[in-house]
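Quick one, probably user error.
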């Protein structure tokens, strides 16, 4: 996210296709459960709660959900500020898995484990602030994402009213309240078990902001608590 208010992100949070002027949610992408079988001998486990129907989420649900996650984590644990991937699982919500972008600058590389059966949601680039800021931001917003080398479709979501209540010490401010969010977003159906490579790039020239993440994702059955 850049230092200018409102904050700009990506995901890459605060976090790609041939960009998008897609106005509808994409169909199952490469690596989705619909396109490849599980690895031999590896059985998907049920999630603790039913997976969210990520493709039916409204713009307020997409943007308030992701931003609510991003502002719920204090700075020292923030997935948006993480440079290795060790914070990927911080404060994740049930039934969905969010991926973070960065606050701008150099491309970072993250290695993350994602539970089997969960859909993914992330922005290529996003911001919150005034509705007029969103207009300027979206006029020059662009980005791309690839999964295992194949381009992903992103969708632009314009100025949307959301309510944010930040955790004390999070990177984006506390008790933000009513605000407007916008950005370029990617929704993914649950990925097949195994390893996947995800690249995310996003920028908005109006905010002089760019972001990027190279994700090494391992989709696996969660290890039971207390297991050795």
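Nope, works fine. Designed sequence:
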């Amino acid at each position: 996210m850049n230092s200018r208010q409102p904050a700009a992100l990506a995901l890459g949070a605060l976090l790609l296709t041939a960009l998008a002027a897609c106005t509808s949610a994409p169909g199952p992408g490469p690596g989705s459960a619909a396109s490849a079988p599980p690895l031999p001998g590896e059985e998907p486990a049920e999630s603790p709660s039913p997976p969210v129907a990520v493709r039916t989420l409204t713009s307020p649900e997409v943007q308030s959900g992701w931003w609510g996650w991003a502002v719920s984590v204090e700075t020292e644990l923030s997935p948006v500020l993480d440079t290795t991937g060790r914070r990927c699982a911080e404060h994740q919500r049930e039934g969905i898995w969010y991926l973070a972008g960065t606050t701008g600058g150099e491309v970072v590389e993250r290695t993350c484990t994602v539970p089997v059966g969960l859909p993914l949601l992330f922005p290529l680039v996003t911001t919150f602030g005034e509705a007029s800021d969103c207009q300027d931001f979206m006029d020059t917003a662009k980005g791309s994402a690839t999964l295992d080398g194949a381009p992903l479709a992103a969708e632009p979501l314009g100025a949307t009213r959301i309510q944010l209540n930040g955790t004390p010490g999070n990177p984006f401010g506390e008790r933000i309240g009513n605000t407007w969010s916008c950005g370029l977003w990617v929704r993914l159906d649950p990925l097949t078990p195994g390893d996947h490579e995800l690249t995310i790039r996003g920028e908005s020239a109006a905010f002089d902001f760019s972001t990027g993440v190279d994700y090494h994702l391992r989709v696996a059955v969660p290890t039971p608590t207390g297991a050795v």
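The first strand starts at residue 8 and ends at 9.
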